[in-house]
Specification:
The chain has four helices and seven strands; from the N terminus they run E-E-H-H-H-E-H-E-E-E-E. The chain is α+β, with helices and mostly antiparallel strands. Helix 2 (38-52) crosses helix 3 (54-85).
Length: 149
């Protein structure tokens, strides 16, 4: 494998069969290191990579950011699909029945009901919002009819 512009002074060949790994726990044990935690060790590795392999490190950062952006966009699309499945009109006995009728994955989204607005006779309108863990939100107006028992 040949590395170009990897922060090294000249092109370098690496025999990947000669690369060895060692666990963090073993390093701590062999060198009798106390007081350093795994996250600190990861930070040291990150700093070393950014110093000696800056080009590759930047590539990894860009790829990680792209993945985060795609996950955020995917979450928004999934939220839009979930919102499309919510009916436009419900017949209910009381307003708090809406939350049990609207089937939303509560681990992914928060559903927020606005204040009901009286339209006519027993018809009301209410805005519902879905919010994901990225803080993105979409809303939809739904109507409901309060029926008497």
């Amino acid at each position: 494998m040949y590395v170009k512009n990897g922060g090294l002074e000249k092109n370098t060949a690496v025999d990947i069969t000669q690369i060895r790994t060692i666990s963090f726990g073993r390093i701590k044990k062999i060198f009798n290191i106390k007081g350093i935690e795994l996250q600190d060790f990861k930070n040291i590795i990150f700093l070393a990579h950014s110093r000696f392999f800056n080009y590759e490190n930047q590539k990894i950062i860009y790829q990680t950011n792209d993945i985060k952006k795609l996950k955020k966009e995917n979450s928004y699309l999934m939220m839009c699909l979930a919102m499309q499945e919510i009916a436009d009109f419900y017949n209910i006995f009381e307003i708090n029945e809406l939350s049990s009728l609207i089937d939303i994955d509560n681990e992914k989204y928060t559903i927020i009901f606005g204040n009901p607005v009286f339209k006519e006779c027993t018809k009301y309108e209410v805005e519902i919002k879905l919010k994901d863990w990225y803080g993105q939100e979409i809303s939809k107006m739904i109507q409901y009819n309060l029926i008497t028992k």
